[in-house]
Amino acid sequence: MSLLERTHDGETKDPPSSSSSYEFTHAAAKSAVAQICETVGYNHFKDPPLESLTGFAIQYILQLGKIATSFANLNGRSHCNVFDIVLALEDLSGNDNNAEERGCSALRSVKLREIIDFVKVSDDGEEESLFLQTLPRFPVSDKRKKMMVPSFVEVGESPPGKHIPLWLPAFPDPHTYKETPMWIERGLDPRGDKIEQARQRRKAERALLSLQRKLVCRISSGDGDRVWGDMDVGTVKEVIREAESEVPEDEKRDGVSVVEAFAPALEAARDVVFGEDHAEWKQKKQKKKKPVALSKLRTEKKFLGEPLDLTLQMKGEDRSMSLREEDRDDKRRRAEFILRQCMENPVDLNQL
Amino acid sequence: MNHGQQSGEAKHEDDAALTEFLASLMDYTPTIPDDLVEHYLAKSGFQCPDVRLIRLVAVATQKFVADVASDALQHCRARPAPVVKDKKQQKDKRLVLTMEDLSKALREVNNSSSLSSCF
């Protein structure tokens, strides 16, 4: 089997479920050893000898590291240096011959000289056979876990006590275990809010009442039998325009609902939002073709003139003669109701 | 005095040669990748931030494996070739790493080193 095939086999045989890094590193070491053997002259391998040679190579590295570390520790160091490695090499080679001849210099070591020669030969000779695949940096640190609890240094806090080192995970925020004062919201001004609300309500009521008055005047003056059903589009529009002019600009926002209420069409007024008056208003709407919204309109409702035209025109065309008489009765009843309401609310009138 | 000076000079030369060798290690990339060697060294407690030392260990391991493999190859070549029917096949001998050759080569290594105590 050629080297590349061996490499592929070595990697695909690794069980994916294994969490340890043993299989991964073993496979990487196996392919590296196979590459070295290829440079020596081999072009085919059998699996068992390759496995055992890989094991030997891994053990060699482990033993080198272990012996070098012990030499460093013997000298009172935790980090190894080149001399520790040279001593470890000598130890592993088992040559006691030059134990006495070993001088102060590491270069006197036979093993090291052999390695230097080896490097020179490899460098001067054919191209260096680099490891065919790129290995990721392993072991891969689980950054999720790390990010969950950062250390004092990472957070930028200083630990509360001198005995606590900076590299330990930071303490949780005090609000997680202590009752800290709530965020103080901006100061409420209930009086100011109420005054503002009342002012807006008064404005709306003023406009409504003036409209009511005008409508009532028209109803009661001269045209006794004239009811809403006979009022043509132009008249209603005129009245509403007058009322609109009294209303300040900034209160015309929600005019759609009121316009629809004024419109003779019942369907157009479906989406009006009247709050608690909605149910009552709906009842009235069902009885009459033209809604009488003035009776119990909430003061927040505004007026708009433009959309009214379209709806009124459309609905006016659709009305048939048979329905008109019924409408007239309804309108009459509604007009009387409005009048009664106007009389009954002396407070609102006084505000004008 | 002279002897001391000479040994001192020799020491300086040796140190210079060692430094030069370590520098040359950065140019030569060993076949065994640095990450792999570092992983196994970390397993045994070897702590060193210097990459050159990692490379030194990698090169030492590479040399060890190359020595064993070359010994096994010699054993493979020394073995008499099997009976060949065609003359053409005689020259192209398949060089396969077998357990036989490897065990012979490792036996020599074990006899000559203290590595046998590790296995």
From TrEMBL, chain A:
Residues 1-14 have a biased composition (Basic and acidic residues). The keyword Nucleus applies. Its main location: nucleus. The keyword Transcription regulation applies. Keywords: Nucleus, Transcription, Transcription regulation. InterPro entries: BTP, Histone-fold, TAF8, TFIID_su8_C. Transmembrane segments: none annotated. It comes from the Eukaryota. This is Transcription initiation factor TFIID subunit 8. It comes from Brassica cretica (Mustard).
TrEMBL record, chain B:
Its main location: nucleus. InterPro entries: TAF10 (IPR003923). Pfam families: TAF10. Keywords: Nucleus, Transcription, Transcription regulation. It is found in: Nucleus. The keyword Nucleus applies. Belongs to the TAF10 family. This is Transcription initiation factor TFIID subunit 10.
